[in-house]
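Quick one, tokens below. Sequence please?
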């Protein structure tokens, strides 16, 4: 009979809409999130072997919170993430503001170099940082971690702030200068409030990238300095226990929370348009 059978993706057909595009997207999402879901589920496993289900339990979360070495590594990661994201934010904002105002002949080339750490493999970044710090005879530890993570996070802040600066009406700054405001005051009272959503988003993304980094940290960490991801990586050599699954679950939850906050703050960036209009009206 004509018309019998399922209609794939035809609008108004009333049949199941399982087109090739949706099947492909579903397969990609399953490939990305099913392993994460399994790690989360097996973090509540009572058995010591991750491959065997021994019943639901919070035992390994209790073991996790009794591990002093892990919490020292967690504290190092938190300190490193806060310091590196703050340094990256300061450098990224100043760099984006300078690039937006200066008319340099090779501006495009400078911008390409600024975002190079994003597309460079982390193993290359780690090896380069290792050779550089060894050449300068800098002791490996928290300082080398901070320098490496800051250089890795600057492009994220730079790109976000640069994109926001491109949408700011230049007449606002010109009007502020005509009214007697200096360069610093115009930046503080006009530019900075308008780019603040991009700055905060860059801070959160930088913190997440620094907190989760393993490859670069392995190359530049010291003997007496451990970050949480490096600690987890080294513990995998003696076998994966549900305690590692529990820590990975908490790390995933923290990263997801930071990404959600970054998306929400970026969404509020549209409100800065209203602030811009308000400033323009006051001037």
């Amino acid at each position: 009979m004509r018309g019998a059978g399922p209609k794939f993706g035809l609008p108004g057909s009333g049949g199941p809409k399982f087109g090739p595009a949706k099947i492909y997207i579903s397969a990609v999402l399953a490939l990305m999130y099913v392993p994460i879901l399994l790690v989360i589920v097996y973090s509540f496993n009572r058995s010591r072997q991750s491959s065997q289900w021994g019943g639901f339990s919070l035992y390994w979360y209790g073991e996790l919170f009794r591990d002093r070495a892990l919490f020292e590594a967690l504290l190092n990661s938190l300190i490193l993430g806060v310091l590196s994201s703050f340094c990256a934010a300061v450098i990224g904002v100043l760099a984006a503001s300078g690039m937006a105002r200066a008319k340099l002949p090779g501006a495009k080339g400078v911008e390409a170099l600024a975002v190079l750490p994003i597309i460079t493999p982390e193993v290359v970044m780690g090896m380069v940082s290792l050779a550089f710090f060894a050449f300068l005879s800098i002791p490996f530890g928290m300082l080398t971690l901070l320098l490496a993570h800051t250089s890795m996070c600057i492009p994220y802040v730079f790109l976000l702030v640069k994109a926001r600066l491109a949408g700011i009406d230049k007449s606002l700054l010109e009007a502020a200068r005509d009214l007697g405001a200096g360069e610093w005051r115009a930046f503080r009272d006009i530019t900075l409030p308008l780019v603040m959503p991009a700055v905060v988003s860059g801070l959160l993304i930088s913190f997440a990238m620094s907190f989760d980094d393993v490859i670069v940290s392995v190359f530049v960490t010291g003997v007496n300095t451990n970050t949480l991801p490096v600690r987890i990586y080294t513990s995998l050599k003696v076998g994966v226990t549900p305690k590692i699954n529990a820590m990975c679950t908490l790390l995933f939850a923290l990263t997801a929370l930071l990404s959600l906050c970054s998306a929400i703050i970026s969404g509020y960036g549209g409100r800065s348009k209203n602030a811009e209009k308000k400033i323009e009206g006051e001037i």
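Confidence is low (pLDDT under 50) at residues 7-11. The chain has one domain: 67-282.
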